Amino acid sequence: MKRIGCLAAAALVLLVAVIAIWFASGWYSSAELEEDTAFIVPSGATLTSVARQMEEDGVIAAADSFLLRAKILGSSDPIQAGEFLLPASASQARLLDILQHSQPIRRMITIPEGTPSIIVHERLMAEPLLTGEIPVPVEGSVLPDSYDFERGEERAAVLARMQAAMQNYLAEAWPRRKPGIAVDDIAEAVTLASIVEKETGVARERRMVAGLYSNRIRDGMMLQADPTIIYPITRGKPLGRRIRQSEIADINDYNTYSMTGLPKGPITNPGREAIAAVLDPETTDARYMVADGSGGHAFAETLAEHNRNVEKWFALRRERGEM
Asked: How many angstroms separate the Cα of 174 from the Cα of each of 169, 184, 189, 203?
């Protein structure tokens, strides 16, 4: 009788051990996924609702067994909202750990320096993983940079980060401005920086171009920046043709060939370096510049010197067959 009792007890222990091994193996062995899969956890979702969705999507075989194993064998940390990459053949233990502790998938959208707001709007609206509508942002309000976002995020939230980045940068940069610069406030600095951004793509020239335009502002000269002619026509998009004489003579709030001082506002979204150049321009006597054929500009202090540089530029264009 005693022997029977010992055998029964041993059998029970063995059964419990088998059940424990089965229970644990179901937690630590590979799950149902055959390939890497993106999975979205909505904001406010519970582990129960997520388990039900994973069962429906074929990520796990059964939500109830997953939840039971998670309660006994898993961490009690909360799950995160966001989009997660669930790897093929991951165990249920690994799946829970990913939802609790891994970084959500972040995607990037890049706004290059000198991108006008109308194109910022188009890029955000064209991103299929973003949601919602946005207006065209105020020109000069977006800081060019690369920004990450999550699948399903509101476009308005991404745009708000771009604009907050500009505000934060200006708040840091403005107090470090060089004494006696030609602009009186942050708004004017952004407007002049937008012209510098569009006038030169050569990094080493930015401070020189900023210094030249600062001199023109102080002297009461027209800035005569070609991009300010184009902006009212295309809102900053490429014109795609030569500027017409009628457009050079056009009187509006932006055309610096028909007005002195700065235009009414920015003509693009300037980057950090263009803004920094305006806040610390090169000390120079230059008032004139013209393209030099190498991608940069020839600078001049006098009109006579400038006219000679213009002749050189025209001669180079004739040689290239561009005139």
From this structure: 8, 11, 9, 20
Provide the sign of the torsion angle of the four alpha carbons 195, 197, 198, 204, taken in this order: positive
Q: What sections of 127-238 are H helices per DSSP? A: 155-173, 186-199, 206-219, 226-234
Q: Which residues on adjacent β-strands are paired with residue 312? A: none
Q: Which amino acid is at 244?
A: R
What's the distance, Cα to Cα, between the start and end of the chain in Å? 114
**pTM for the whole structure:** 0.79
The three-class DSSP label of residue 239 is coil
User: Six-digit token pair at 1?
Assistant: 């009788």
State the residue for tokens 């107090």.
175
- d(CA 159, CA 157) in angstroms, rounded, equals 5
Backbone phi, psi, residue 90, to 5°: -65, 145
Euclidean distance between CA atoms 217 and 148, whole angstroms: 39
CB 115 within 8 A of CB 241: no
pLDDT digits (tens, 9 = 90+) for 162-214: 999 999 999 999 999 999 999 999 999 999 999 999 999 889 999 999 999 99
Q: Which pLDDT does position 22 carry in this prediction?
A: 47
Q: Are 199 and 283 a contacting pair, CB within 8 Å?
A: no
Query: Could you read off the pLDDT of 11-26 as tens digits, one per residue?
Result: 555 555 555 454 555 5
The CA distance from 88 to 91, in Å, is 9
In the chain, the percentage of residues whose pLDDT exceeds 90 is: 59
Say how far apart CA 259 and CA 232 lie, in whole Å. 14
Distance CA 204, CA 299 (A): 13
